[in-house]
Structure formats: C-alpha cells, structure tokens
Amino acid sequence: MAGGIADRPRYPFTAPPELGQEAVRRVPIVIVGAGPVGLAAAAELAMLGRDTILLDEDDTVSVGSRAICWAKRTLEIFDRIGAGDRMVDKGVVWNRGRLFHRDREVYSFDLLPEPGHQRPAFINLQQYYVEEYLVDRVLELGRTDIRWRNKVVGLDLLPNGGARLTVETPEGSYRLDADYVLAADGVRSPIRQMMGLDFKGKVFEDRFLIADVIMKADFPSERWFWFEPPFHSGQSVLLHRQPDDVFRIDFQLDPSADPDEERKPENVVPRLQQMLGPDKPFDLEWVSVYTFTCRRMERFRHGPVFFVGDSAHVVSPFGARGGNGGVQDIDALCWKLAAVLDGTASPSLLDSYDAERIPAADENLLNSTRSTDFMTPKNEASIAFREAALEMAEDLPFARRIVNSGRLSLPHTYVATPLSTPDAEAWERGVRPGAPAPDAPVEVADGQPWLLRRLGGRFTLLRFADDATAAPLKVPAGVTVVTVARNGRPDAGTVIDRDGTAFARWDAVDGTAYLIRPDQHVTARWRKPKPGDIGVALDRALGRGDATDARRAAGG
Predict the structure, then answer these.
(1) Rg, the chain, Cα only
(2) At 325, is the secondary structure helix, strand, or coil?
(3) What's the CA gap between 152 and 283, in Å, rounded?
(4) Interatomic CA distance for residues 295 and 313, integer angstroms
(5) Which candidate, 144, 213, 223, 228, places its Cα nearest to that of 184?
(6) Rounded distance between C-alpha atoms, residue 536 and residue 269, angstroms
(7) Residues 6+ apart with CB under 8 A from 88
(8) Could you report the per-residue pLDDT of 326-337, keeping only the tens digit for each?
(9) Contact (CB, 8 A) for 485 and 467
(10) Using one digit for the tens of pLDDT, what is the confidence trace for 415-468?
C-alpha cells in the first residue's frame, strides 16, 4: 500500500435499519467516535464477545500524523486485540532519545535498557495508519456495526437507565437506545457539550507548529529534542522519524504568533530550510498549530455514559500521554462492561472506572504540566533554573533527572483501586496489586514465546512452580490457570522459564501465585495461596461483595 494522507481509504455509508422506524431499538453498547480509542474499544469488546455499534460522523481516518508515539503498554493492548504485529511491522521502533542544548548534545537515554521484552519502549506510527489497521481488525472480528457518516446530534438519559441517541445521516435521522455509551468523540466532545459538562484545567499561552515533512534523511530512529537550537528562534524543537520517509518536526512558537500565518507554507518552508539546510529537498505533507492544554472532566462516568480518551482529558503532546492514555482508558473499562452485561459482575464494578482512570489522568496531567513549565519558563528565575540544569546535565546524572523535555508515557499503577486485594505478606519486590503485568521470554508449546501472550482477556491465575508436573491448583469458575515452571515441558497451560527471567521479575518462588485481571493488571498475589483466597480476591475484583461474604461464611 502506498503511504501518505492522500492514499487513506474512504468507507461507504450504509443506511441504518432504524431509519424510518417509529419503534426505538435498544442495544447494549454504542461507541461514539472512530478514532484510535473508539476503534480499540470496539475491537476489545469484540474479543470479549460483545456486539457494539460504532458511530462516526466522517467516512475516513484522521488527517495528518497527530498521535504518533505508541508506548509499550499500548502495543501490548494492541497485541491482545490482534493488531499489534501489524503496527510494529509498519512503525518505526525506538528506545533511545537524545537531548541537545543550543549546539551541543547534553545526554542520551534508553527507555528500555533491559532485554527480555517483546515490545520496544515506543514505535512511531501515524495516527491514520493506527486507525486504518484498527478498522480492518474490527471488521475482521465481525461483532461491530461501524456506521460511517452517522453524527450524534442529541443524547438524553432515560429514566429507566441507559441513554437515547439521536443520529443524523445523509438519508435522515433516527433514534437509538443504549444500555451504555462510550463517548470517544474527541477533545471538543459534542456529547460532553450536550450533557452540559465542564472540561476544567489549564490552557497555556505557548503554541507549537507541527510539520510532517517527506524527505530522504539519515536521522536515526530516535527522539531528538533541542532546547534553544541555533537553527530556530524559539525555545525548543522536537524531531521524530515516521514510516514512509515522513519526519515529524515540532517548532515552539512565540506566544504572540498568529496560528493562521504560521501554518502557511510560505512561512513553514523557511523554518525547515533553516533547520535542514537550504539545499535539502523535502515536501510538506501536513501542517498544524496546537496550543498546550492540560484539562479533564471532574468525573468520567455519568450514569450510562463513559467518557474515554480526549473527551475525558487532554494533555500537551510532549510525553505521548494523550493517545496512549486513551487506549488505556478503554482497556480498564471494556472488561468491566462485558462482565456486567454477562451477569458475572456487580453493576457497581463500573464505578471503579473513575476510581482507576481519574488518578491515571491526573498523573498524566501533572507530568504534562511540569514538562510545559520546564520547556516554556515564564520568568527570570525559571529561565535561570532551566539554564543551570541544562549546563550541569552533560556531566552530572542528578541534573539529568531535572531536565524535562516531556516525561514519556508509562502505564499507571492502580494504587487506590477498590478491586485489588491488599498483600497479606511482606513483599520486597515483585508486581504489586494494581500494576500491569511485566513481560518475559518463556518456552511455549505453540504460539509466540512471551509471557504476556498468555495473559489477558480473562481472569488468570499465574502460578509459579519449580517443575511443570506440580499438582493442579483448584480455582473458581471463570479463572484460567497458567503455570510458569523452571523445569519440564511446556503444554497448553504451562510455559517454561529456563533462564529465570519471569521468576525474577515477579519475585516468585515455588508456589507463588498472582491473580491477573482481563486487562493484564495484577489484582492479588500470594507467596502460597490458602484455600478460598483466590475466590475472595476474584469476588473483590468483580465487585461482588455479597459473594465474598458467602464464601467466608462457608469457610472457602
């Protein structure tokens, strides 16, 4: 397939069956917005066995690179929904970054310094590719009715629960009721506005010019960031390589700059020539100007409506926390929706979406705000502090921790989630409840030789044993057992950790066990579980307090 914006597909409009019908159909889940977050939600729910309707007012994927840096955790989620391999194969893989101050390199860093992980720290892949690959995967899974050119123009909460959507199409309007609505409709979120909800936070004065440049160049596959570069009058510049010989270059602009003037080719081209050299041939693929913003809704759940991604929270792009945070939103939500609709979980489980994802958003907002403050100092004291930090960072490791060109995205650990079971024993290391599961190379009977490929999509008891022939462990219904053994032969339920990497990362000994949620986050751990421990932890993770009380009363 040829690359570039002009080659993106357009999807056909098909008249929905509800057009012209007096009766209003009710469905379990409607997703609004076919960006990366909405599409990933549709794919994940399909993998969990749930049918959805996905509405989008456009008929194609996004224009321009937009979100380009996809973090390791997000790639692991894409793996679980069956789209990760294609994205990594197309994307530009990178782990390293370099930081410059004026005309000298200050230091470089490695975001994935240890071996034994399937996925890199990041790939760079234009958002239009991510969306296109997710559309293909959603269609392949076959459980999603994607409705292009279906624009939501009204939303009303129903007195008996659920929401009624009014949808406008090229052939007329219709109404659709849903038990649950996922609002993945972006930073300007029409649904948020229809519901009269606030989007609070800070909008900075600073602006950046984005230029997607097509050129042949020998820049390595690394993140390059300049403070006060000699080729640009602004305070900073960022460079990333993308597929198809496309380079993303971000130029910081003066706060007084006119966005409309700055994005004109006659003004963009001289900036690029000053950076790249007057004789370097290139073509402009896409140009945009954005403003630093750090905002979020007070709550992400409003009855049957769940706000996900940019509709719920928005951060400045440095740090790659926007798209990655949105994909991790739906990863924390979809398995809960599926469990409630299946009747295996209490409806109260859905309240944990706010309990988990609001702290995650706040972590991203804090990092984004700190990055913005360092990159765009507003007074003489801040300027002097940044100058001193950059001068010392070349020689002093402690100063490098102060330099902030965008703290790059890491997965959030759900420290305060009500779904986790507190440790009953002391752990010095290992994977704490609420944390995402780490990967490790393992020997398998079939499939890919990575531990994370055995986890996710269901509750899993990850059990560690010295030998693969260890006696079976009794678990409650709905829990799958995966055994990690030091010795023996792998089979459908057992993987072998010959070099001890998995045992070390999980701080495991013979008998150690972890209960893993469908989104690959740890919910409980034991040095050696006692009878009933796993069932009680499962009930807690599913919001089934009554079931836990019954288990304890029965002594199991």
Answers:
(1) 25
(2) helix
(3) 37
(4) 6
(5) 144
(6) 63
(7) 75, 119, 120, 123
(8) 999 999 999 999
(9) yes
(10) 999 999 999 998 989 999 999 999 999 999 999 999 999 999 999 999 999 999
